[in-house]
Design brief:
The chain is α/β, with parallel strands linked by helices and 248 residues long. The chain has 3 domains: 47 residues, no CATH class; 65 residues; 102 residues, Ubiquitin-like (UB roll), CATH 3.10.20.580. Helices cover 35% and strands 21% of the residues. The chain has a 3-stranded mixed beta sheet. It has a two-stranded antiparallel sheet with strand order 1-2. Strands 3-4 form a two-stranded parallel sheet. A hairpin with a 2-residue loop joins strand 7 and strand 8. The longest helix is centred in the C-terminal third of the chain and has 20 residues. The protein starts with a strand and ends with a strand. The N terminus is likely disordered.
Length: 248
Amino acid sequence: MKIVNGEHRQLQIKAGDSVVFSSSVIPGNERAVQVLKDNLTRQGAKVYHSKIVDLHASGHATGDELKQVAKLVKPNYYLPIHGQYFMRAINVELAEEAGLAKGHGLLVDNGQIVKFRKDEAQITDETVPAYYVMVDGLGVGDVGEIVMRDRKLLSQEGMVVIIATLDRKTGRFLKNPDVISRGFIYLRENKDIVDEMRNKIKNIIARIPMHQEVDPDYVKGLMRDQIGQFLYTKTKRRPMVLPVIIQV
């Protein structure tokens, strides 16, 4: 993109043009940047970046620039609020070199409360919640770590749903256990694993004495553990196993 008279216009690349990536890639953006490099190269551009040429332009101010800002602003107190603690400590040192009074550089962690009075700034022992707030659709803060962990597991390993329909009186199967796979294996191409899984499910129920009432939560736990271990042994993957017990 280029800006002409305040408007963004598409930049046309011609064969032989040079494109310089003057800053390093921010972690997490590697794939998007690589796609951009590929597309520029397809158009005939020669792409230069810091890994092949000794060039780098930081998006952050240098130490001398930070000291210059401190000299111009002349703050009474200096409170860096972003970045690693180590880097913020150096920031305070630079401000002191620029004339900030000793002890007027404040270093705090996320959530700590600093009280400012007319002639004093005090770091207190009080804290406030300062953690990530998950936004999910219309919900704000209602998605916790357990939900995020489950979503991560589902995205990586998939899930297997086991539906067991049992006779309420005898605790025995009324029909063959149903197995549903999503994001794990294609059932039609893995019939041997599915058959072994069904046999193991039947064996779990068969070990429960006929006179004993079936505890759905207990049976679900057995299925989750034993079928999960079986699938890991067979595939070296750990899908989420969701047992469903229906008593008729």
